[in-house]
Amino acid sequence: MDIGIDKIGFYTPNVYVDMEKLAEARGVDPAKYTIGIGQEKMAVAPLHQDAVSMAANAALSILDEEDKQAIDFVLFGTESGVDHSKSGAVWVHQLTGIQKGARSIELKQACYGASAGIKMAMGHIALNPESKVLVLGTDIAKYGLHTGGEPTQGAGAVAILLSQNPRILSLDNDSAALTKDISDFWRPLYSDYAFVDGKFSNQAYLEFLSDVWGIYKEKTNRDLRDFEAMCFHVPYTKMGKKAIMVLTEDADEADTERLMSYYQDSVYYNKQVGNIYTGSLYLSLLSLLEQGKELEAGARIGLFSYGSGAVGEFFSGTLKEGYKSQVRTEAHEALLESRTELSISEYEEILELALPKDGTDIDIDHKEVKEGTIYLAAVKSHIREYVN
Ligand code: COA
Q1: Could you give the CA distance from residue 73 to residue 157 in angstroms, rounded to a whole number?
Q2: pLDDT at 54
Q3: Which helix (H) or strand (E) holds 105?
Q4: Which of 42, 152, 306 should be mutated for ligand 1, with most atoms under 8 A from CB?
Q5: Distance CA 33, CA 379 (A)
Q6: Residues 6+ away with beta carbon under 8 Å from 328
Q7: Given 164, 204, 298, 330, which residue has the most CB atoms within 10 angstroms?
Q8: Gyration radius from the chain CA atoms
Q9: Is the peptide bond before 70 cis (omega within 30 degrees of 0)?
Q10: pLDDT single digits (tens) 58-107
């Protein structure tokens, strides 16, 4: 059965920080952030945007009435969950008007959560060919002010609709996965900020890539020449370049040039948004689909997902005829262009804002919310109130 991505869209909050200005404020050469790390702008989440509202906004941008009636599974991948018990998927289900006979759950494994959702969706559709499954990857990446990870923060969500006979990307049933218990990045329940061993996380990411690629090649007999382009989890865009360098270490020039030639297109959106953890790989795929030249139907795209802690997986898909007419390039460019730049002091204030931890009621300032955007309006009697 042909199963894969039928629709894909994203949402990011409407404020950002300019990376050159952040570098200046931190006494760092701006080229370190823009070239060494590869980021131009960093999305910042105001208090009225959390993992739930961002995912609902991403989902609303792609779903029509027919989809809402056909979706019977909502899979919410995040490491920025807002409740230990209730899944973010339940709120998204309600906020987007998906038919009531659906199941809705949350998935967690650092930046790998949405990929786990895609794997589950494929199995579900194989058993239930008429189903459509909504997979969400939504996160706020926060390391804190004046930390090593500060230039690699960001916020946003990707929504992916999977079905049989998809119109964008058919997914191959060919993946290679790996799990290892390591401490490269984690966020204890008591902390608003992630803990990270930055250098070790880079090294672990690249080792996982090398290992799963080796397993994948053995399993499938495929090699670099079988891939038109590759997309990677991009916590910061330089990481994608490092990943291509690992894969092409012994490759011939043609393979290296081809993969590198798609790299800039595949990180165009990530450069302007920053790290969105579990959605980052899919934001990169969307960037390639929308910002790259039209690729031939059947062209194979490799996808590498990495979630610290750690799980890695390499899998692939082939493009469908006419996929360019199914994506929403203009809307996504307008979303990025309509954002407002924050001064460094405004950014610092927003980043440190948090909901009360003692259960006090709060009304959240949402003066800046654009019409039609879902947001968190209040927390009353320990219950979050979202407004659509
Ligand atoms: N001009 C151009 N490049 C410069 C530069 C300058 N003036 N100054 C430094 N650089 C380059 C460095 O050479 C380095 O490149 P390389 O990675 O190709 O070697 C890069 O910029 C980063 O510099 P580095 O000194 O390593 O940065 P850092 O110690 O501040 O740490 C991270 C960078 C990414 C490790 C840190 O931001 C972090 O911990 N982020 C969160 C964790 C993460 O995203 N992990 C990814 C795997 S999941």
Answers
A1: 18
A2: 98
A3: strand 103-107
A4: 152
A5: 36
A6: 9, 61, 62, 290
A7: 204
A8: 20
A9: no
A10: 999 999 999 999 999 999 999 999 999 999 999 999 999 999 999 999 99
Residue with tokens 């204890």, as numbered in its chain: 188
Q: What is the pTM of this model?
A: 0.98
Q: Which of 233, 290, 313, 332 is an active site residue?
A: 233
Residue written as token pair 């209730």? 86
Total Cβ atoms within 10 A of residue 248:
18
Q: Contact 195/143 with Cβ under 8 angstroms?
A: no
Q: Which residues line ligand 1 (CB under 6 A)?
A: 29, 31-32, 35-37, 148-149, 151-152, 185, 196, 198-199, 201-202, 205, 235-236, 238-239, 308
pLDDT in the model for residue 346: 98
Contacts of residue 325, defined as CB under 8 A and 6 or more positions apart, other chains included, come to: none
Q: Are 312 and 211 in contact (CB under 8 A)?
A: yes
Nearest-CA residue for atom 14 of ligand 1: 36
Q: What separation in Å is there between the alpha carbon of 91 and the centre of ligand 1? A: 37
Please name the residue whose Cα sits nearest to atom 7 of ligand 1: 32
Catalytic-labelled residue, pool 79, 106, 290, 313: 79
| Active-site residue, 79 included | yes
List of domains in the chain: 3-387 (3.40.47.10)
Q: Is 233 a catalytic residue?
A: yes
Segment 203-223 mean pLDDT: 98
For residue 374, name the pLDDT band (cuts at 50, 70, 90).
very high
Residue 366 above 90 pLDDT? no
Helix then strand then coil, % of the chain, to nearest 5? 40, 25, 35
In whole angstroms, give the CA distance from residue 172 to residue 159.
20
pLDDT at 140 > cutoff 90: yes
Closest Cα to atom 11 of ligand 1: 36
The gap between the terminal CA atoms of the chain, to the nearest Å, is 36
pLDDT tops 90 at residue 367: no
Buried b (16+ CB within 10 A) or exposed e, 99-114: eeebebebbbbbbbbb
Cα of 37 from ligand 1 centre, angstroms? 5
Does the structure show a pLDDT above 90 at 310? yes
Q: How confident is the model at residue 368 (pLDDT cuts 50, 70, 90)?
A: confident
